[in-house]
Amino acid sequence: MMGVFARVGAAVRIWLADVGHATALFVRLMLLGPACIRRFGLVRDQMHFLGNYSLAIISVSGLFVGFVLALQGYNTLQRFGSASALGLLVALSLVRELGPVVSALLFAGRAGTSLTAEIGLMKAGEQLSAMEMMAIDPVARVLAPRFWAGVLVMPILGAIFSAVGILGGWLVGVVMIGVDAGSFWGQMQAGVDVWSDVGNGFIKTVVFGLTVSFIALRQGFEAQATPEGVARATTRTVVMASLTVLALDFVLTALMFKL
Amino acid sequence: MQRSKTDVWVGMLVLAGAAALLFLALQSANLLSVSWQKTYEISAYFDNIGGLKKQAAVKSAGVVVGRVNDIRFDDKNYQAKVVLALDVQYQFPKDSSLKILTSGLLGEQYIGIEAGSDTANLAPGDKVQSTQSAVVLENLISRFLYNKASDGPASSGSQ
Fold first, then answer.
1. CA A98, CA A107: separation in Å to the nearest integer?
2. Which residues, other chains included, contact A184 with Cβ-Cβ below 8 Å and sequence gap of 6+?
3. Dihedral class, residue B107 (left if φ above 0, else alpha if ψ from -120 to 50, else beta)
4. A203, A196 Cβ separation under 8 angstroms
């Protein structure tokens, strides 16, 4: 009987300590923002690594998501004789939901895993300990630039995803199927609001950027310093980042788009 | 050399992101038509606004001349107070009338403004007197059914 209490207690204690460590790391990374701007070279190199190399997968996925949205949307809308609202459907679903969420999931898979593996291997190779020996703070020198690069790059990727997706929707809807171009853009422009749709989508990408970069870095930083440990941390990055992004998306949508 | 090359690539990425945002703001959301053109506000009371929403268009002869800025319930006279922001370049006579219309059969509702014949124009803060409420489908149907019901027995009784 006492054993049960002890196990529950231990689990809660460990969980609380985990939350505490994560929060402390998050606060430190946030506070290191100004320092990162002062040494922007480090951040820029990471932006190049995280952003430019993710650009291909982001834009190709965006294009195909736009294609599929236009096909499926047209299929459903023309049953109600409102195929002219296709542009609105494509733009709203991309700008509000699919753009931020899918690009965040892709970012977690493409860039988050590489961050985790990199930090994890640095830890396994005791590079981080070596830095500490030289009185260089690994959080400031290694984690913070990567974190801020991820935060800066994610909104850019999200915006590109949505824009390319809308172009893809236009390509299939207008050029291929033959929906009237005027009503495609006209309905879109009448129905999409700059602040409540595009702006809120942008805020979502910023939040997802914070989430995914932080989860990836923390998983790498806390990984067990063994090959299996790094492998497990990488897997956990994808799983945790995806679930957190989806859950946060629900919360953000409920807050932003109340009717 | 290595440094400057990275700079170029990151710069291009940032510019591509900015271009994408600009495209979303201008082409899909039409930021320019929302615009910061100067407007003047007038208000009007409606018995029933139906499904009118904030930001709905105000049209005259089918052309958008303004937006609905605010909709509030006035508990003094139990009517809806609607504040319209009209474009400064469009002036309407003081006795213009407002109607809540629907685009298409079941589409968005908007306000149609019909010019009157007064020589003085509406000034900022003015109240439009003549308004016509939205057509509420349920009221229409119940009135129709009521008429039918009252017709039915009377016509059969006369025979």
1. 13
2. A84, A86, A87, A170, A173, A174
3. beta
4. no
Q: Enumerate residues 28 to 47 of chain B having a beta carbon within 8 A of any beta carbon in chain A.
A: 28-31, 33-34
What tens digit of pLDDT does each residue of A79-131 get?
887 888 899 999 999 999 999 999 999 999 999 999 999 999 999 888 999 99
Q: Count the neighbouring beta carbons within 10 Å of the beta carbon of residue A219.
A: 27
Residues in Cβ contact with A66 at an 8 Å cutoff, skipping those fewer than 6 apart: A90, A94, A164, A165, A166, A167, A168, A169, A170, A171, A172
User: Are A173 and A179 in contact, with CB atoms under 8 Å apart?
Assistant: yes
Give tens-digit pLDDT for A183-241.
Answer: 888 788 878 888 888 999 999 999 999 999 999 999 999 999 888 999 999 999 999 99
- The whole model's pTM is what? 0.75
Distance from C-alpha of A47 to C-alpha of A49, rounded to nearest angstrom: 5
Predicted interface score ipTM higher than 0.85: no
- Minimum Cα–Cα distance from A95: chain B residue: B24
Looking from the CA of B47 toward its CB, the CA atoms found within 13 Å total: 7
Confirm if B52 and B83 have CB atoms less than 8 A apart: no
Query: Who's near B99: CB < 8 A, 6+ residues apart?
Result: B111, B112, B113, B114, B131, B132
The CA–CA distances, whole Å, from A223 to A7, A111, A119, A133 equal 24, 17, 9, 20
d(CA A66, CA A76): 15
Which residues share a beta bridge with B131? Answer: B98
Cα–Cα dist B38/B132, whole Å: 27
Please tell me whether residue B119 adopts helix, strand or coil conformation: coil
Identify the three-state secondary structure at position B80: strand
Of the candidates A47, A95, A198, the beta carbon closest to that of B10 is on A47
Nearest CA to A103 out of A24, A182, A209 is that of A209
Whether the CB-CB separation of B90 and B38 falls below 8 Å is answered with no
Question: What is the amino acid identity at position A221?
Answer: F
**Neighbouring C-alpha atoms within 13 Å toward the C-beta of B72:** 9
Chain B residue at shortest CA distance from A54: B13
Q: Say whether B24 and A190 touch across the interface (CB within 8 A).
A: no
Closest CA to A153 of A35, A26, A47, A34: A47
A63: left (phi over 0), alpha (psi -120 to 50) or beta: alpha
